[in-house]
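Entry:
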Amino acid sequence: MTPPHGSSSPEPLPDGPRILILTTFDLDEYVYSALRAGVSGFMLKDALAAELLSAIRVVAEGDAIVAPPITRRLIERQSAPPATRCPAPRPNSASSSSANARCST
């Protein structure tokens, strides 16, 4: 189907789809990857049904949400003194394995 005005490439939607990740993987590297990719929410499958419904509503309204246990870890990581603060994990980084091992203790 040809987009309006005869353009050969579709124009991006002004408000693209909002994505809520629902996963069993409670790994920081997955959270950071998803957030960098532009997801609006990241929830864990062990959340209560009411929490999941609330997350869906939050994302549908254009806001963002991250599961409370993940939020707690992100806050702890960011509020640590700079000398002990661990960098956000970067997938496929040669140094990320050793940094993640050092920082996950």
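The first strand starts at residue 20 and ends at 23.
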